[in-house]
Amino acid sequence: MGNGTASPEVVDALFDGMRNLYGAKFEKQWGEFDEHGVWGAELAHLAIGNLERGFHRLRGEIRDAARSGDTAWPPQPAAFAAMCEPRPEDIGLPTVDAAWREACAHCHAPDEWRWSHEAVQMAGQTVGWREIHGTTAQSVRARLEKRFEREYGALVNRVMSGQPLQAQGLIESDATRNRAELAERASCEAAQQQAEAAGLPHRMNASQGLAMLKAATGRA
């Protein structure tokens, strides 16, 4: 696995960190190391920067559980992998919930609202402003919300990967763009840069990435 991804040594460091967090509960469930390769297989697509993000989120969950008097249990590999993935708020975009609330609040006049991000507007437009505005049945509204989440998630992924949010059929020069359009493009470029920074920097080699993960998990 290249560029600091979940090699056996990285998974070993992660296991050490999990034992630091959960004690015997983790080792009893998963052992001292990833004997059957379950964790390595589930995390293989993630950079070390992503693993560090997931580990920090686990710490947050444990703190929240302690505050409420609950017991935090070790995650399943797939659940931890999901925690490692970037979220819209990691790159300055609205959360899914915030984006849906914004779409609902301004679905009656979408062209008159200055959207927090183009992805929110595009997701709402795809679902249908008339449908969002005119639907009162809870079951139907829940389906619309789920569809919005899918559409918005797909658009966020495009921003994260640096892909355009819409077809580039007509390429305009900066001279023909208004200030709002230039600001929106700058926002997308900034989000792309933050997305790149959220993962493992290209200049970081595997050894440096492993050292970073060990520091995050308290193993260093």
Number of helices: 11
For the terminal residues, how far apart are their CA atoms? 22 Å
Instruction: Report low-confidence residues grouped into runs of 5 or more.
Output: 167-184, 198-206
Cα-atom Rg, whole angstroms?
21 Å
Tell me the helix content: 55-70%
Number of domains: 2
> Mind describing the biggest β-sheet?
none
What is the total tally of β strands?
0
Structural class assignment: mainly alpha
Share of β-strand residues: under 5%
Describe this structure in words.
- This protein is mainly α.
- The chain has 2 domains: 96 residues, no CATH class; 107 residues.
- Helix content is 62%, strand content 0%.
- It has 11 helices and no strands.
- Helix 1 packs parallel to helix 11, helix 4 crosses helix 5 and helix 6 packs across helix 9.
- The longest helix is centred in the last third of the chain and has 23 residues.
- About 12% of the residues have low confidence.
Task: Compile the SSE list and pairings.
Layout: H1 8-22, H2 24-30, H3 38-43, H4 48-67, H5 77-84, H6 96-105, H7 118-127, H8 129-134, H9 138-160, H10 179-198, H11 206-217
